[in-house]
Amino acid sequence: MSRGIAIEPGTGKYERLLERCERLEPVPTAVAHPCDATSLSGAIDAADKGLIVPVLVGPRAKIASTAASAGIDLRDYQIVDVPHSVAAAARAVELLREAKAELLMKGSLHTDELMAAVVSRDSGMRTGRRISHVFVMDIPTYHKVLMVTDGAINIAPTLEDKVDICQNAIDLAISLGLEQPKVAILAAVETVTSKMPATIDAAALCKMAERRQVTGGILDGPLAFDNAISKQAAETKGIHSDVAGDPDILLAPDLEAGNILAKQLTFLANADSAGLVLGARVPIILTSRADSVRSRIASCAVAMLAAHARRKKP
Known about the structure:
Layout: H1 13-21, E1 27-32, H2 37-48, E2 52-58, H3 60-70, E3 78-81, H4 85-97, E4 103-106, H5 111-119, E5 132-138, E6 146-149, H6 159-175, E7 182-186, H7 197-210, E8 218-223, H8 225-229, H9 231-236, E9 249-251, H10 255-268, E10 272-278, E11 284-285, H11 293-312
Parallel strand pairs: 1-2, 1-4, 2-3, 4-11, 6-9, 7-8, 7-9
Antiparallel strand pairs: 5-6, 5-10, 10-11
Helix pairs in contact: 1-11, 4-5
């Protein structure tokens, strides 16, 4: 039952995602090492919203102490006792492999500790897809939820990596209710030139989409950021595009560009940013200590919708 969590007012975009979640059952979620107030309260807040059923994996005494300090009642929640953060990541992944959970949520451990367990060749959750990260952003100055990928996992993605990064984001957008997501493939310019490899990759991705090597979305690129976001800017430069001015997904040329873009939107445009890792056997909820309550709840809502979409796949 909800305890009336106070969520900061936003534009309503995340709230529409939450409305889609209301008719769905909460998803069992392994929470790896929730040993500080932010990560523990994030999991419990999402549970109170009916989004997840958290299984708390970490040192029992430390979790209990954190809960007592934060005024959190853990009587209704399962705790899986392990000695430290590395063991918590490994055991959380085991729970997923044993089908005792459907989502993985990062607690107060380092991201590389969690991802090491996820990508382990012997005991992890790798698939044939490249693992990638998506920021799902609510930007006050943009007319709908906007995804930015990849700003956290792949440092210098190859063309083949970008195929998976793009497909992961398209699949997520479809699970959020979009029929044919629009993907703007970003570069510094909107023309193709061998001097800028990102423009070559963008052009190749568009042709690959025509040949159904990338499916489910409408791709256009290379597009500079202004042309991607502003229909007027695109038309001024003679670009006629179904994507320009209305993208659902911005595909960045590399991690630095994606990360800087997402953080600029957060800190200069007052955007909220939910975070999800895709391409593994299950979606992975990545939250930051800097995230607002609204962002943490949105991350769990997006993951919940993705998990339910996976259940429907044959």
